[in-house]
């Protein structure tokens, strides 16, 4: 048995198996689109009718007096008033 045959027999199949496992694990994550993170601009069309109040014939939403800087900058996130 030559060196080339030995390498083909004992190296190539395990490397191919490891690569297949890596592709099965990482492949689905790489195929998905990136997730939205809070604070990033929303580049998609509105999904709910309330996201576009002018389109629904409602009055546009206004910021309340005393709103925090995050809402004034147009950034998302959880907040509330007590």
Structure description:
This protein is 39% helix and 0% strand. The chain is built from 3 helices and no strands. It has helices spanning 3-10, 12-31, 69-72. The mean pLDDT is 76.
Largest sheet: none
The helix content, as a percent range, equals: 25-40%
**Total helical segments:** 3
- Which ranges are low-confidence, i.e. pLDDT below 50, for 5 or more consecutive residues? none
Coarse shape: rod-shaped
Structural class: mainly alpha
Note the beta-strand portion. under 5%
What is the arithmetic mean of pLDDT? Answer: 76
Q: How far apart are the termini?
A: 80 Å
Summarize the helix and strand pattern as letters: HHH
Round the Cα radius of gyration to an integer and report it.
27 Å
* DSSP E strands, number: 0
Transmembrane segments: 6-27
Organism: Pseudonocardia acidicola
Region (Disordered): 58-82
Keywords: Membrane, Transmembrane, Transmembrane helix
Distinctive features:
82 residues, mainly alpha, 3 helices, rod-shaped, transmembrane helix, DUF2510 domain-containing protein, membrane, transmembrane
């Amino acid at each position: 048995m030559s060196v080339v045959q030995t390498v083909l027999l004992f190296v190539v199949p395990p490397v191919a198996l490891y690569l297949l496992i890596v592709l099965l694990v990482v492949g689905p994550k790489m195929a998905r689109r990136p997730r939205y993170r809070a604070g990033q601009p929303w580049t998609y069309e509105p999904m709910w009718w309330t996201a576009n109040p002018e389109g629904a014939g409602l009055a546009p939403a206004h910021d309340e007096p005393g709103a925090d800087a995050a809402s004034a900058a147009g950034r998302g996130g959880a907040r509330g008033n007590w």
